[in-house]
Amino acid sequence: MASTSRADNPQASVWLSRKPVPKRKGDAEGGALDLERIVAATMRLLDAEGLAKFSMRRLAAELGVTAMSVYWYVDTKDDLLEIVLDGINGTMVVPDVSQEDGDWREQLRVLAVEYRKMLSSHTWVTQLLGRYLNIGPRSMAYTNACLAVIRRSGVGEERITGALSAVFQFVYGFCTAEGLFKERCNAAGLTEDEYFKQLTAEVSERVDYEESFKEAVDLMESQSALTREELREQDFGYALDTVIAGIEAMRDR
Question: What is the pLDDT of residue 66?
Answer without folding.
Answer: 92
